[in-house]
Structures are given as C-alpha cells and as structure tokens.
Amino acid sequence: MNKPDREGYWRQTRRLTAGLFLLWVLVTFVMNWFARELNEIVIFGFPLAFYMGAQGILIVYLLIIWFYNRRMRVLDARYGIEDE
C-alpha cells in the first residue's frame, strides 16, 4: 500500500473509531445523566432508564461492535488489506 492509500485508510479508520466512541460515550454517560427524566417514560410497565440500563445499552454496545466489524471489513477490502 502506498503512502496516500495508507493515509486515507488510517484517516477513515480514525474517523470511524472516533464516531463510534462518541456514540458509546453518549449512550453510557448521557443515559445515566438523564435517568430521572427518562424514568417518566414507561415502556411495557418499566421506566425507560431501567429498561435501557438492563437491556438497551447492552444491545447498543453489540450493535457498535457489529457495525465497526462490518465497516472495517469494507475498508480492508477497499484498500487491499488481507487478514493475517
């Protein structure tokens, strides 16, 4: 891989990682910060903050991992990087 390709690959990788990290921070800390306000919303008899703490945040974490894996496979294929 030549130098411009390498720079483009790492720029896109850093952008993806930073974006998903920001999503992780928002889900982890903002949901907890506004837990009292979110408890006013009730879904299936449970407050939203309880539901997100028990189930929803874990699902979001799995989706972040899935999306990162999928996107990195596309980037690796585009730039010709093989699995070792």
Fold and architecture overview:
- This protein has one domain.
- It has helices at residues 3-33, 35-38, 48-79; strands spanning 42-43, 46-47.
- A hairpin with a 2-residue loop joins strand 1 and strand 2 (46-47).
- The protein is elongated and about 55 Å long.
- It is built from three helices and two strands.
- It has a two-stranded antiparallel sheet.
- The chain is mainly alpha-helical.
- The model has no long low-confidence stretch (mean pLDDT 88).
- It starts with a helix and ends in a 5-residue tail after the last helix.
Major pleated sheet: 2 strands, antiparallel
Q: What characteristic shape results from the CA principal axes?
A: elongated
Low-confidence spans: pLDDT under 50, at least 5 residues? Answer: none
Report the strand count: 2
Q: How many structural domains can be distinguished in the coordinates?
A: 1
- Assembly classification: single chain
Question: How large is the radius of gyration?
Answer: 18 Å
Task: Estimate percent helicity.
Answer: over 70%
User: What strand line-up does the widest sheet have?
Assistant: 1-2
| SSE series | HHEEH
Structural class: mainly alpha
* Mean pLDDT reading: 88
Number of helices: 3
Termini distance?
15 Å
Strand content: under 5%
Topology (SSEs and partners):
Elements: H1 3-33, H2 35-38, E1 42-43, E2 46-47, H3 48-79
Antiparallel strand pairs: 1-2
Helix pairs in contact: 1-3
